[in-house]
């Protein structure tokens, strides 16, 4: 019976291809971990979806696996936190809870024509024109954001309008209040509570493009212009709050749900980047660079929009996010596509055989350049090859190129906001490369700290749930939990660093000029 007295925090993390359930103890240590694959559905070109019912079944299955251990019964769980891949959504019937669409992924691009139509909408263009004039005069960040906004298929607003345009009957039912909208967090909470709760948090809502981060409410004017019924949206709670209790019929007892949060925001919180200027970089197939902007929404003049990182006790914390699409996928391609190295491990081993690239520069933009250069047609480029070039030089240039592309994102945010960076927290599979992280420390000229847990999203969701339940009392207590980061300190000669950066910038400019 003694084991039943010990309490844990349960974190559920649902990504693009799998779902995890992780238990954390009072010291923030992982004591149990379960995983199930949830592969996406590609029904036609451009489509990327999941079956919502299968995701729900996977969630129940993985939690029941967790509770098979006698030490970790549902009664041992203090509270549950949920984090999820952001921007994906579904519609379901209010009366029955039956899904009316698949979960349409943020990476689904079938609504490309709809985004073009939205950007050229006459009413929207007039609003942007007026916002540009008034924003220039007043400096109001909400007006500046309005005139800079360009709709893409990344925005759930675009994909949702596309769904309604394809299915007018769904729009009619939505206007009558018969249909509910939700990102994955909302769907899971709805199912776990047997339909009692239809809620989300600002971190998930803001990524949809339909939630105003400045006013912290659903954007009625935007939805009105594009004929998106407001009745479908969930209530938006604090990120750490009372999201209801799991129905006792599921796991024997009700488990309090005390946090929902978007995946990248969860990782920022998991790294304890609670202060303005805190930075984390999650490096997987792509890389997300997120910086804490404090309690006021900040704009990047080159197109990064303020996102709500979390809201606690009614007080929002904002962030800016830059993204590069090819990191892990690039390394895989270098092995499988052109045979530079068989595995990421071999790439690192090759790179470790030399301390320099001998003049080779690799610009890793195989899927286009995003912030701060914005050229979707840019291709990866390699410069400085000679007859003395060896594979080890190219391997090191690849890792340096990834680090330099991340440096560009961070420098862009710093220049646009005047917010300094004191250190960089990193996680993700690609971050296991010591060479890459040392390059990042050298080029950014700050300490880089690698988390012992490759993916910090689940950690952040757990911290928020524990904070919401009182399991942990404060941010200060969370900051003191055991972590065991490995630290990389800058050690590159300043003159050599400047030379490297100068040659890198010339290579980037040359790449931008190539069609």
Describe it:
- Helices cover 38% and strands 20% of the residues.
- α4 (122-138) packs antiparallel against α5 (141-148), α12 packs across α17 and α14 packs across α15 (391-417).
- It has 19 helices and 22 strands.
- It is globular, with a radius of gyration of 23 Å.
- The chain has 515 residues and is α/β, with parallel strands linked by helices.
- A 7-stranded mixed β-sheet has the order 16-17-15-14-20-21-22, sandwiched between helices.
- α16 links the parallel β20 (423-427) and β21 (447-450).
- The longest helix has 27 residues, at 391-417.
- It has 3 domains: 7-107 and 154-263, Nucleotidyltransferase, domain 5; 111-152, no CATH class; 324-420 and 494-513, ATPase, nucleotide binding domain (Nucleotidyltransferase, domain 5, 2-Layer Sandwich), CATH 3.30.420.40.
Short description:
With 515 residues, the protein is α/β, with parallel strands linked by helices. It is built from 19 helices and 22 strands.
Keywords:
single chain, 515 residues, alpha/beta, Nucleotidyltransferase, domain 5, 3 domains, 7-stranded mixed sheet, 5-stranded mixed sheet, 19 helices, 22 strands, globular
């Amino acid at each position: 019976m003694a084991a039943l007295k010990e309490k844990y925090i349960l974190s559920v993390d649902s990504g693009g291809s799998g779902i995890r359930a992780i238990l954390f103890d009072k010291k923030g240590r992982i004591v149990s971990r379960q995983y199930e694959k949830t592969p996406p559905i590609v029904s036609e070109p451009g489509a990327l979806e999941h079956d919502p019912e299968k995701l729900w079944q996977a969630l129940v299955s993985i939690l029941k696996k967790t509770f098979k251990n006698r030490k970790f019964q549902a009664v041992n769980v203090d509270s549950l936190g949920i984090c999820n891949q952001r921007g994906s959504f579904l519609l379901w019937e209010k009366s029955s809870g039956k899904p009316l669409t698949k979960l349409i992924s943020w990476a689904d691009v079938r609504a490309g024509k709809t985004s073009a139509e939205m950007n050229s909408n006459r009413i929207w263009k007039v609003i942007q024109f007026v916002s540009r004039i008034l924003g220039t005069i007043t400096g109001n960040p909400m007006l500046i954001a309005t005139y800079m906004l360009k709709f893409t298929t990344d925005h759930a607003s675009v994909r949702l309008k596309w769904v309604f345009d394809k299915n007018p009957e769904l729009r009619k039912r939505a206007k009558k209040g018969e249909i509910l909208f939700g990102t994955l967090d909302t769907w899971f909470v709805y199912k776990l509570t047997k339909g009692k709760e239809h809620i989300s948090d600002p971190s998930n809502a803001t990524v949809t493009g339909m939630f105003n981060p400045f006013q912290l409410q659903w954007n009625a004017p935007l939805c009105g212009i594009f004929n998106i019924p407001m009745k479908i949206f969930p209530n938006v709670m604090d990120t750490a709050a009372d999201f209801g209790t799991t129905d006792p019929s599921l796991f024997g007892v009700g488990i309090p749900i005390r946090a929902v949060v978007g995946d990248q925001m969860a990782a920022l919180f998991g790294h304890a980047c609670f202060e303005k200027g805190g930075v984390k970089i999650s490096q997987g197939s792509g890389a997300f660079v997120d910086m804490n902007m404090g309690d006021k929404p900040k704009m990047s003049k080159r197109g990064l929009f303020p996102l709500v990182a979390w809201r606690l006790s009614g007080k929002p914390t904002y962030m800016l996010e830059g993204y590069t699409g090819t990191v892990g996928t690039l390394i895989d391609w270098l092995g499988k596509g052109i045979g530079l190295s068989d595995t990421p491990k071999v790439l690192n081993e090759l790179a470790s055989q030399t301390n320099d690239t001998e003049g080779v520069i690799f610009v890793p933009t195989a899927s286009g350049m995003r912030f701060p250069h914005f050229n979707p047609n840019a291709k990866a480029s390699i410069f400085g090859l000679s007859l003395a070039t060896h594979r080890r030089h190219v391997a090191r240039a690849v890792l340096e190129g990834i680090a330099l592309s991340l440096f560009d994102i961070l420098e862009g945010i710093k220049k646009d906001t005047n917010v300094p960076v004191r250190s960089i927290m990193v996680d993700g599979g690609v971050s296991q490369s010591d060479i890459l992280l040392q390059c990042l420390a050298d080029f950014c000229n700050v300490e880089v700290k690698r988390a012992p847990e490759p993916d910090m999203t689940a950690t952040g969701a757990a911290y928020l749930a524990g904070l919401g339940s009182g399991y942990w009392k404060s941010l200060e207590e969370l900051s003191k939990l055991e972590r065991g980061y490995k630290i990389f300190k800058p050690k590159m000669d300043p003159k050599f660093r400047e030379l490297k950066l100068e040659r890198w910038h010339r290579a980037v400019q040359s790449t931008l000029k190539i069609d």
